[in-house]
Write a structure and sequence with these properties.
The chain has 368 residues and is of the alpha/beta class. It folds into two domains: 216 residues, 3-Layer(aba) Sandwich (Rossmann fold), CATH 3.40.50.1100; 101 residues, 3-Layer(aba) Sandwich (Rossmann fold). The strands form two sheets. A six-stranded mixed beta sheet has the order 1-2-10-7-8-9. The chain has a four-stranded parallel beta sheet with strand order 5-4-3-6, with helices on both faces. α2 packs across α6 and α3 packs parallel to α4.
């Protein structure tokens, strides 16, 4: 008996040509982009401790999320999920959507960002500048379901950064952020940092850095700094994958109301809960120290990094600590840099600013 061979060929010459060109365009963007700078934060020389900030605000779309968006687009294209003429839809508080709108425009597909109404106007304008459309919802918790519904209704692709961020990036290297940090530290006094401090929105950055450190057997420890209204800290401490919190984070770009699939607790050595006032104070301190405005998520990481520096100093340890400049401060002039907004929110940053300044001039032993 002869069994009839079944052969289904779904290849399409026109689609494959489009796919090859789309992948080439995304890869070419990386090839055109120089690496981001590693800046030194001024500490007293006699401490023997160096503090660096990886300045991700210099990417073409102005934030750490440019790396993530590039990886997500390559992942979606190579999986056959992103198709010509069909929209890419993302649940995002802003910076990821800005970067994804850029890449969507680059390859010629529509882009829709689903985000909370509280997102800064500057970010919404940036998304629209890159050709994206913003779909606003009342609660940050709605973004997931609304994004999935929009994708189903339009035949588009829900990018879902909160699920795929930790797997879309090659954590073994391939010029990821961790490999870049270690390469740039190679000629520094302490080339293997004692700590790298990251903040978590999806959790993808902390997972990439931690996996790279473990893979190459470095002694570097990974700390994740979490803002007030976020569940990552509690979920990590209690080993609770179902942890949630009732309100959304006031620190845009980081903190989540639920434990996201891309947050990998087991890869992380330590977590810190950071008051919003400390985050914003540290952001303001950064401008005074190196004349650079950054967002409050950068302040969250800087506050935690300075606390680690204080612990190392008290223990007589020498070494280096690295944290990240996540995005530029000009997106938040009417928010974190506006004293009227701080007063409206009941946020008092003066005590934290004074404490950090006293620590840095040697008149306070630490930040506790």
């Amino acid at each position: 008996m002869v069994v009839q061979t079944t052969d289904v060929d779904r290849s399409d010459g026109e689609y494959r040509a489009w796919l090859k060109e789309a992948v080439r365009k995304v890869q070419a963007d990386a090839n055109r982009s120089a690496d981001t700078h590693l800046l030194r934060f001024p500490l007293p020389e006699d401490w023997g401790i160096d503090l660096y900030l990886k300045d991700e605000s210099t990417h073409p779309t102005g934030s750490l999320k440019h790396r993530l968006a590039r990886s997500l687009f390559l992942y979606g294209l190579c999986n056959g999920w992103i198709r010509p003429g069909k929209p890419v839809i993302e649940a995002s508080s802003g910076s990821t959507a800005v970067s994804e709108a850029y890449f969507a425009k680059l390859i010629g597909v529509p882009f829709v960002a689903v985000m909370a109404r509280s997102t800064s106007r500057a970010k919404i304008e940036l998304i629209e500048f890159h050709g994206g459309r913003c779909h606003l919802v009342d609660s940050p918790g709605e973004v997931y379901e609304v994004s999935a519904r929009l994708a189903e209704r339009t035949g588009g692709h829900y990018m879902d950064q909160f699920t795929y961020a930790e797997r879309a990036t090659d954590w073994r290297g391939n010029n990821n952020i961790a490999e870049s940090i270690f390469a740039q530290l190679r000629l520094e006094p302490h080339p293997e940092p004692a700590w790298i401090v990251a903040t978590a929105g999806t959790g993808g950055t902390s997972a990439t850095i931690a996996r790279y450190v473990h893979y190459l057997q470095h002694d570097t420890r990974i700390c994740v700094a979490d803002p007030e209204s976020s569940c990552f800290f509690d979920g990590w401490v209690k080993s609770d994958p179902d942890a949630t919190c009732a309100t959304g984070s006031r620190i845009e770009g980081i903190g989540r109301p639920r434990m996201e699939p891309s947050f990998v607790p087991g890869a992380v050595d330590r977590m810190m809960k950071v008051p919003d006032a400390a985050s914003i104070a540290a952001m303001r301190l950064l401008e005074r120290a190196i004349d650079k405005k950054a967002g409050a998520s950068t302040g969250t990481g800087l506050w935690s990094a300075l606390r680690i520096v204080a612990e190392m100093k008290a223990a007589g340890q020498r070494g280096s600590v690295v944290t990240l400049i996540c995005d530029p401060g000009d997106r938040y002039l009417d928010k974190y840099y506006a004293d009227a907004w701080l007063a409206e929110q009941g946020i008092e940053i003066a005590p934290y600013l004074e404490l950090m300044e006293r620590f840095l001039d040697g008149s306070a032993p630490g930040l506790d």
